[in-house]
Inverse folding.
């Protein structure tokens, strides 16, 4: 076997595993071709109409993007928004409501966003179909896209975050706390990286979730230390550095050195930041996850003594 064959084989095996999970999510039989995954059981004549609609609107979108020459103006965004609305009307004119739902489950932006994360968490077909309309409703109102501009609305991001919290709560109510949290983690890039590394190295399937749980519990403990008003800053710093040693020991038990090396510093910065007396926290919400860092305040430098008579 050539030196480069093993990574290629492992990568292909991972791709095939994800495709298998996606087929199960959509209720498609093993070995289904991509056209079946996209259009389901639609008859050939409707498939051809959909393909023509997709081609036409894709070409018109490309024309608008090309004319913008890399500088998208408000007028360009309005054109793209209207184009999307017209495409939706054309789709509804070709498909029945039930067929349009099946198309959305396979080919909508929300479907593209959900398929791989839900395949990684081994979601069932029933879970996918229950979560999809909740996520789609959120996406249509709040997810930024190339045809919207919310930069002039200071309340947009605050309201979007609140809507994300409400969506996360509804998802946890349906899936249960553990599965619901796994759904939120699975949408983070760090989870995808860990899923890939765990599969490549043959680690237990639950490894990504266990690392994410360690990350969040460590961050919560770090925040509690920072907020403890009975501690001095020196005590806080020492306790957080001790927390770093504890977290690193648990992380080493979950991820061998090779896995940590493959993940890189960015995915594991929540550990390294503790060494500096800083706590990295992750707010996992659908479509609006955020990262923040809090640190132990450094002591103010002692001012130089004033000269006599000064």
């Amino acid at each position: 076997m050539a030196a480069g064959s093993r990574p290629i084989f492992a990568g292909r095996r991972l791709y095939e595993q994800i495709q298998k999970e996606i087929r199960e999510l959509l209720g498609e039989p093993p070995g289904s071709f991509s056209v079946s995954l996209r259009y389901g059981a639609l008859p050939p004549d409707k498939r051809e109409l959909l393909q023509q609609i997709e081609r036409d609107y894709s070409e018109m979108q490309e024309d608008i993007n090309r004319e913008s020459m890399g500088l998208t103006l408000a007028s360009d965004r309005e054109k793209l928004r209207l184009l999307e609305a017209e495409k939706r009307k054309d789709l509804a004119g070709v498909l029945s409501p039930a067929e349009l739902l099946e198309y959305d489950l396979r080919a909508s932006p929300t479907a593209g966003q959900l398929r791989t994360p839900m395949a990684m968490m081994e979601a069932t077909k029933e879970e996918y179909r229950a979560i999809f309309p909740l996520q789609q409703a959120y996406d249509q109102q709040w997810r930024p896209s190339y045809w919207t501009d919310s930069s002039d609305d200071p309340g947009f991001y605050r309201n979007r975050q609140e809507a994300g919290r409400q969506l996360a709560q509804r998802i946890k109510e349906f899936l249960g706390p553990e599965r619901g949290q796994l759904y939120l983690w699975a949408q983070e890039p760090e989870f995808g990286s860990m899923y890939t590394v765990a599969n490549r190295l043959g680690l237990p399937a639950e490894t990504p979730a266990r690392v994410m749980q360690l990350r969040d519990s460590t961050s919560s403990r770090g925040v509690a230390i920072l907020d403890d008003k009975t501690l001095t800053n020196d005590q806080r710093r020492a306790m957080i550095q001790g927390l770093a040693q504890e977290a690193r020991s648990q992380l080493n038990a979950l991820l061998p050195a090779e896995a940590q090396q493959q993940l890189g510093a960015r995915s594991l910065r929540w550990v390294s930041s503790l060494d500096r007396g800083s706590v990295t926290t992750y707010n996992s919400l659908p479509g609006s996850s955020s990262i923040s860092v809090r640190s132990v305040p450094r002591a103010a430098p002692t001012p130089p003594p004033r000269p006599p008579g000064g």
Residues 189-295 form one domain. The longest helix spans residues 44-68.
